[in-house]
């Protein structure tokens, strides 16, 4: 069982959370009309070995979405911050669009 | 085999009634079932898994591969119980398993003679090849094979006992209550850390419990135990096994609260599952003795040497009179000495040529004969050992001289000890090979949260076990932030020789040709012989992981506790490598077999998940409603009147709504408060339709898509105030919609000043529908509900029964209808007030079944249509989508594949005949072969009182152009074919005149 240090609630069991999705993808802006950026956002994911940023939802706690660093190789848990505060790297999709 | 008159840690004044296969055993308080069997002269306990060979008691602990029995009866019946760890209790009933017609004469034993055909890979080889194009041969044989290759049989009765789960937090968790674990607990406890010590036995002491009564070690344990019991920060838990080490410093323990009793007492649970979070763990789990491999080493009468000593000193049982102790290490000398002193005639056969005089003296002084440079070639005897063939051997265990025969009834074997590193391995992977102890240990890493101590860390002497345990306790407490004084190490004591020094690498005995003589077992529980490993090697298996799966070695319930290292040794020999180069497998939880009950705890049946009840729930139950599950909710299904079944009731209820007025509890709808200055913009993005123009006091139906363009949900949202909206969702999708809204607001739409809060539980909702609904609600409330004052899609505040309510004018049934919202606490009061006033208007409550019939008549989509694979276009909802603004899913919904005109679209079906269609039935043209997935499927079906026929909604290819066509509706599961006419899914009042009345 992994334990997640929620910035609001403190160290909690993973059973209080649900996994959301890969946090390295950025949602295209609402006025994006091209199909490809949306396809990349919805469907295309990397499958990295090692540290990975993920959205988790503290469903049975403060209901905040957090960005959690998790090592896909060792299942270690790293930094956890509110999605609201997170600075995420631009996704490949938006790089390609630029 | 006999019980001695004195000695042992048993209470001779407390005899217990214990039976095995109907035979009464002379059990005493303090015995295990296996001890009672030995005391009662039972040597044949079980038949082996594959060859049905006779097996007896092999060990005295959790590693037991052979002595497995059926334990207890009725609902408490338990298969594959290891006799060596079952505490004897008064009234214990056990029986043998995997034998027919009985244990003594077992027909399955023919497998023993057929063993050349049942070697490694038997299944792979037999059931592919000539039969590879068909599984028929396998299916034919499977029943017989499964019956013959057996373990115990489980009961089909319900377990009458309860189990529970518990969480706990400790600074230090010490696993194992032997010398190392006790001294670690002592030092960490003295420093002030919160410490939990768990021991799987019912008593503390570990290996000390196998020392003679009155030893120095025994008084050491009692002094330490007394000090620990006095510490408030130390918790001692016996009968508790640490079964799993998991991420996040989480450890699973199973406490056997009542397993030592006939039945749980005083409402206690049977077992308790602990999830312990500990900053540091000291793994003082000891070591498991390794067997020696030779022909017939599985026969009853062959036993681990340490087990023979344990039965002698703990249970006062002399397991044999003429004993051969076979060893490759020093630890067996003490066994030989203790057995000799107890009156047995003992010959110690040591594979080593040179052994220190001081070590030999231990055995000789007690009267045992020591034979050096010899090994046991084969154990002879039919159902129990009666002779041992021994021969002089070289360092690799190969016979180099003439064999001779010894008469014996007990061969006690020791091939060294394997540290029990399972828990460390579960979390951190493969242990490393330690050359000195020829075993696998956890690598040195002071930062690791699990630290081994004592024989688990291959300590070389008892003194080292004690100091190491003590120091690990100090280190663990320090790592957890404690700086107190640990004091002095309690005075040490001396015991006999440790195994590690002088261990010979020879672990098997071969004849002069280099073969084992007879069947020599490596994995006793899965019947894997040394020649199975040889065969796997010949067939090219080099990876231990492959070897394991091909031969099934280490895959029985003992998970290779005895087998693994010997198998790796053989692999290394065959490949000409060192053991570390061959590698090892990783241990997985659980450490020992664990009851499903303990894992499940109370989470079964109605307690599997919470049941959600509407605030009006109890009224429905009290008034005779049949309830049904809708997700986690209980909802009224129908309200039967005298003699009515489901069909009669829902048809009457639906017709009543169209003719008079009905009320239905819709409190389970998801409700979300959407508040903030940007709420309209938020709704505009979430819903496909526009929200900027919705005025305060009005409401609107909306559709939401997923990011991928498929329909997610629908529902109405009311604008309560300038920045205050009240969104409703379907019952099942409430959580999904809220989670998506929160996600978008906290990630992509951080700029929107909007807050979303679930208010599902805060509001009760009652739909009042039917031509008389206006009259009823006008009478019961103070509101002006006239057509002019409250048109469709408007709401008003009102009072019903002195309670403030909100009345929304909207219809799901297609009739003139309203939804009454009131705070949950008033839900039942408002319901009852309306219900009482309804007498004058011929009001009836109705349930979900008739609500479904009404919505199908109207062609409204619900769960069966919003199933995640349908688009707005498929469902005829495309007209709602705004082309003037983007919304969630607006781009991807137009993917070419979703725009394909061939996609099945929503249609209505009028079914011919008296019989209705089953949801999930497939649609086919009137003629031609009915093959594949057809042209579509049926989603919802009902009898329509309004139309007087069976109707259904379904999705049909090219549905738009097929109106009027007759098609077939085929239910392949039930083998039924119906005929239906394709019509519009707006079956009833397509212009909506009734709801706008």
Compose a concise summary of this entry.
With 98 residues, chain A is α+β, with helices and mostly antiparallel strands. Helices cover 14% and strands 34% of the residues of chain A. Chain A is built from 2 helices and 6 strands; from the N terminus they run βββαβββα.
The percent of residues in helical segments of chain B reads 10-25%
If you compute it from the alpha carbons, what radius of gyration of chain B comes out, rounded to the nearest whole angstrom? 38 Å
State the helix count of chain A: 2
Category from helices, strands and their pairing of chain A:
alpha+beta
CATH architecture descriptor text of chain A: 2-Layer Sandwich
What's the pLDDT, averaged over the residues of chain B? Answer: 93
Beta-strand segment tally of chain A: 6
Number of domains of chain A: 1
Instruction: Count the DSSP helices of chain B.
Output: 25
- Tell me, rounded to a whole number, the average pLDDT of chain A: 89
Tell how many strands the DSSP assignment of chain B holds. Answer: 50
What would CATH call the homologous superfamily of the domain at 163-287 and 419-479 in chain B?
FAD/NAD(P)-binding domain
Strand fraction of chain B: 25-35%
Pair with the biggest interface: A-B, 32 and 23 residues
Q: Major beta sheet of chain A, specifics?
A: 4 strands, antiparallel
